[in-house]
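Journal club side-thread
Mid-discussion, someone asked how the predicted structure for our own chain would compare to the paper's figures. Pasting it here so we can look after the session.
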Amino acid sequence: MTSTTTNDMLRLYGAAASGSVAVEAVLTLLDIPFKLIEGETWSSDAARDLVGERNPLRQVPTLLLPGGETLTESAAILIHLADSHPDAGLSPALSDPLRGQFLRWMFFVSSAIYSLHWIKPDVSRIGASQSARDDVVNAVHERIAFCWRNMDAQLTPSTYLLGDTLSVLDIYVAVVSRFGPWRERFYAEAPKMTAAIRRVDHEPRLKALWEQRFPHDS
């Protein structure tokens, strides 16, 4: 039997309570060993420099494949992992009628919702003064709520968001909906999606991960 060395492993730059937890969750479901490199980029220059060695944008998640290739962008990483392990059923196949909507909503969550959180730590990134930070963050949260509401209006969830099979879309929404304006607002804006996402919260295979990396109360 050949042992797995660190160089053979996936290496994930991530941080607790961040988007990288979605990647950690998918790797857990796939039972893939990985080395987690902590990089809380919003809190220290050291973390930003560490992640910057592999991702010039200095953002998590950043995934290093065993061959040395770097993957960034949470939606791309999740889709890559799911598509690379089709037997797990975490993404609709290319021939599946659900594939188009799967891609649509994966990139919607990434571009219309998750990306807005980049503004909040430093509102000068969009030309706003620090004195306006509270107003800017409130506006960001209102926009996110609007986007969840529109996504909910256009989906007809079953057991999960796209039917009866758990997908990386469910994992992605379960993580991103824990960011501001937080789950209470998500439940109010997305009542049709709520049951599916709560089901992901209580997925037995992810219980320990949620508790360690992104605990929640509701």
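Post-session note: The domain at 6-88 is CATH 3.40.30.10 (Glutaredoxin).
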